Amino acid sequence: MRVRDVISAAADLAGRGDLAAEAEKPSSEQSEEYKEELTLLLRCFNLVESDLSSDCFPLHAVERLRPENERIVFSRFSHVPIFIRSVKERGRSLPFREEYAALILPEHTGEVEVTYAFAPTVKTAEDTPEQGGRVTLRVLALGTATEFELARGHVTEAEALERRFRAAIAAAGYPHRMPQLRARRWT
Fold first, then answer.
1. Which of 4, 88, 130, 154 pairs as cysteine with 120 (C-beta 3.0–4.6 A)?
2. Considering the chain, what percentage of its residues have pLDDT values greater than 90?
3. DSSP H or E run through 103
4. Is residue 87 within 8 Å of residue 114, measured between CB atoms?
5. What are the tens digits of pLDDT across the range 70-111?
6. Quick one: residue 16, left, alpha or beta (phi over 0 = left, psi -120 to 50 = alpha)?
7. Are residues 112 and 105 in contact, defined by beta-carbon separation less than 8 angstroms?
8. What's the pLDDT tens digit per position in 29-47?
9. Measured between alpha carbons, how far apart are the two ends of the chain, in Å?
10. Residue 26 and residue 2: Cα distance in Å, rounded?
11. For residues 126 and 5, what is the distance between their CA atoms, to the nearest angstrom?
């Protein structure tokens, strides 16, 4: 699945078959009249993927790093950490704290294994979503279509799509109470 596929499906869900067909084309072949709406759909996709990653289905990574002066600066990680889940040395948990975009490991200098949740990167239409597994194309498309309709000022349509989006999140196995989607202002 590519982001382009999600955007096309989202346009279809929003009742825009013309836009869905245009989204399937390579960027160089897309008509100028659709560029603005396709850019908006891409922005909506990035918002939805970020929200799902921080609120419902965190993306996890495990890395082996060596602290410098009892610190591991977040910029050394492969991804941008949202929160640190655990720090271990040879299977043994270590005490740690987060401070000013760094992981602090008091009195420890050896290589450690850090498990953390991270934020997805901003995507282009040609990229592959980082969300996968339980988060299907349908879930991403419903969320993207919801944001798209809201951005266009179609509140009634956005509310109907949001109900379907929440049901899709629950069906994907989100075990907790449904989160409130972040309020957005579109100008």
1. 130
2. 51
3. strand 102-104
4. yes
5. 889 999 999 988 888 999 988 888 888 888 888 888 877 789
6. beta
7. yes
8. 888 899 999 999 999 999 9
9. 31
10. 12
11. 9
Q: What's the chain's Rg over C-alpha atoms?
A: 20
Spatial strand order of the sheet with 71-73 comes to 71-73, 102-104, 97-98
| Matching residue, tokens 């999600």 | 6
* The residue type at 128: T
Q: What are phi and psi of 113, to 5 degrees?
A: -105, 120
- Contact 66/112 with Cβ under 8 angstroms? yes
Contact 81, 29 (CB under 8 A): no
- Asked if 134 and 172 touch (Cβ cutoff 8 Å), the reply is yes
Tokens of 82: 């949202």
